[in-house]
Every structure is written in structure tokens, then in C-alpha cells.
Design a protein that fits this description.
By secondary structure, the chain is mainly α. Helices cover 63% and strands 0% of the residues. Helix 1 packs across helix 2, helix 1 runs parallel beside helix 3 (67-94) and helix 2 packs across helix 3.
Length: 116
């Protein structure tokens, strides 16, 4: 049960992204990359929510063997997976970052004085 609880929400997130991007062809690297990002993100979000919001700081991997905890965790992680997939898609569509680097070709003697 513990593997289902930890790995299923990331599959849900990647599935939602794949359905929303119907026109785009994905290769295996895209699947694995997005799966790894969502796996780490969903587990960290769910564990943070359980530890800090619900104040269950002593949760270990053995807690997943308890069916009531397993169902609650799976529900919370699935909701976070759905939300994180939509947030990722919205952020990717609306936020862009560009970086421009210029090489300084003027190597005059005056610039060496700045480093002395």
C-alpha cells in the first residue's frame, strides 16, 4: 500500500498534463522528467501538509500499512496532485523567463585596474 500512496499521485499529475497537451508529442524522457518532478513535489507537499497543518509529525513509512491513514493520505495526495498539475500548466502558459548574456570583447588596460 505504501508504494501506491507514494507513486500513484505523480502518475495522476502526469496523466492530467498529457491530456491537456493533446497536440504535443511526448517521448519517454518527457514522461520520466515530469514524473520525477511531480513525484518529489507531490510527496513533499503532502508530507508538509500532514506534518505542519495536521500536526502529525511522527509519521513514518510504517504508517502507510494502516488502511485509515493510507486512504486519508491517498486522498490528500491525489487532490494535491490534481491541483499541482493545473498550477504547473497555468504557470507554464503565463510565466516565461529569458536570459541574455553578452560577451565583453573590449579588453582594454583600464579594466585590469578594477581588479587590483
Amino acid at each position: 500500500m505504501r508504494y501506491i500512496a507514494l507513486f500513484f499521485p505523480a502518475i495522476l499529475s502526469v496523466g492530467i498534463l498529457y491530456k491537456k497537451e493533446e497536440g504535443r508529442n511526448w517521448n519517454w524522457f518527457d514522461y520520466l522528467y515530469k514524473y520525477a518532478v511531480f513525484l518529489i513535489g507531490n510527496v513533499l507537499l503532502a508530507e508538509s501538509l500532514i506534518s505542519y497543518v495536521f500536526k502529525l509529525g511522527t509519521v513514518t513509512i510504517d504508517a502507510f500499512d494502516s488502511f485509515p491513514f493510507f486512504t486519508k493520505y491517498l486522498f490528500i495526495a491525489s487532490v494535491l496532485a490534481i491541483v499541482s498539475a493545473h498550477v504547473y500548466r497555468i504557470m507554464k502558459a503565463n510565466i516565461s523567463v529569458s536570459l541574455e548574456i553578452h560577451k565583453n570583447t573590449d579588453h582594454s588596460a583600464d579594466t585590469d585596474k578594477d581588479f587590483e
